Amino acid sequence: MEGVETIRRKYYGKVPREPQTRRNREIRISPLRVIDQNGKQVGVIERDEALRMAEEAELDLVEVQANVRPPLCKIMDFGKFKYEQSKKKAAKPAKTNEVKEVRLGRSVKIDKHDVELRVKQARKFLLEGHRVMFVQRFRGREMAHPQLGEQRLTEIGVELSDIAVVTSPAKMTGRQMALTMAPDKAKLAQLKAREEKEAKRVEAEAAAAAASTAPAPEEGETEEGKAPQAPETMSAPADAPPTVSADASQAEAGA
Predict the structure, then answer these.
(1) Whole-number Å distance between alpha carbons of 149 and 178
(2) How many structural domains does the chain have?
(3) Is the distance from CB of 33 to CB of 70 less than 8 angstroms?
(4) Which of 90, 108, 135 is the last residue of a domain?
(5) Are residues 104 and 52 in the same domain?
(6) What is the CATH number of the domain that holds 168?
(7) Residue 165 belongs to what domain range?
(8) Considering the chain, what is the average pLDDT of its residues?
(9) Residue 245 — φ and ψ, nearest 5°?
(10) Which DSSP letter does residue 162 get?
(11) Tens digit of pLDDT for each residue in 117-166?
(12) At 127, which helix (H) or strand (E)?
């Protein structure tokens, strides 16, 4: 019809979904290659037989590989399986090849102390295994003096040369200049070895100092710090008759 505007809905495409793990009756294909709860290969059997085995073990029949024929299924505790999968996802190591950008202010007129703070942060990134890109920006008439930014970036590269190498030298792009550095694995290994050696030396010196300042035990004292005591002897009562030894009694009889 004339004068009627057709409004079309925007198509954003399908929303990607995570592949769901099928289990028990959700598995439609038969036969299946089955592994029992003890990790033993059962072989290729019908789906109903695999479900019966899982029910007898009071566990679940879980499809672990769906892109093979026949699909690979395992008899297991599905709740425990999901929990272990979530733990593996959470324990994924962080990416170490990420490029960290460190901006040296909005112009060349940045305080020296601020530059030191940014270099300190960049050192931390490099020790963690990340690459670092320093960015120096220029404002107004500063564009006529690019050598100032290049000199600063070169000084930073020299300062961090003990743990990193320059992978991309200072280069002007538009109104900013950038320099990229990457961690040097050999230098980082040497630094770590030196730190471990220094830590061991400090620990040994502390142990030696503690041993030298400990008081030595006095002569005749035991480990508990007390002198050994002689065993106690029982004294005879005052009104008890005197005791005579066997030799003395024989001598009196002979006389």
Answers:
(1) 9
(2) 2
(3) yes
(4) 90
(5) no
(6) 3.30.110.10
(7) 99-186
(8) 82
(9) -75, 165
(10) T
(11) 999 999 999 998 899 999 999 998 999 999 999 999 999 999 999 999 99
(12) helix 112-127
